[in-house]
Amino acid sequence: MKKHQKNAAEDLLDIVHLNEGIKQVVVIAFHINLMALNAILLANRAGKIALGFGVISKELRVLAVELTQLMHALKAEAHDSVNCITVLLRQERRRLLLTAAQSQVTNHTSALAGVIESHAAYRDEQVVRIKHLRNELLGKLMDARRICQFGIAISRSAKIEAAYGGSFSQQLKEVSTDFDQNIHAILPALDVLCNTLEDNQ
């Protein structure tokens, strides 16, 4: 396999992994959102002693929505990347066919050389565009990591607030533990995706 085709195939594989990771994060963010809604209701039932817990639950809900939106934006950019890679592969196949044809003909070789050159120039533009899209994807993944790290800090605060929940303390503690476990589950998935994109830069 030629160098550009090999690189494009690797890029395509990375995007497939990225899409799988995005689905995983969206599912967890959906659970966090639902848990946060239930936690807000629970905090309302508990009254004044769980005011802080209610505020934190609302923050976690906002975080889950923000993370979901970011994942949808990532998915759209991943789709653009797949389109670019597909065009690159098609263009490179044509260029290779033209190059093979050039070696077998004796007439119009200069015209053929011009076409091959324009295909090569277009390929180079696509390679730059794909690299730019990879950097954009990586930037969004880093943003998602920052949101998760903030979520981990908030879920720790939820645990502290749960301790002051009086008769609701045990229920609030269970909810805060679920928050913590779910947010911690996102971070390794994002790390794998970041590493994949960084390794093939």
TrEMBL record:
InterPro entries attached to this UniProt entry: Chemotax_Me-accpt_rcpt, MCPsignal_dom
UniProt xrefs under Gene3D superfamilies: 6.10.250.3200
Lineage top rank: taxon: Bacteria
Domain Methyl-accepting transducer: 28-64
Keywords: Transducer
Record protein name field: Methyl-accepting transducer domain-containing protein
Organism: Leeia speluncae
Lineage, opening ranks: Bacteria, Pseudomonadati, Pseudomonadota, Betaproteobacteria, Neisseriales
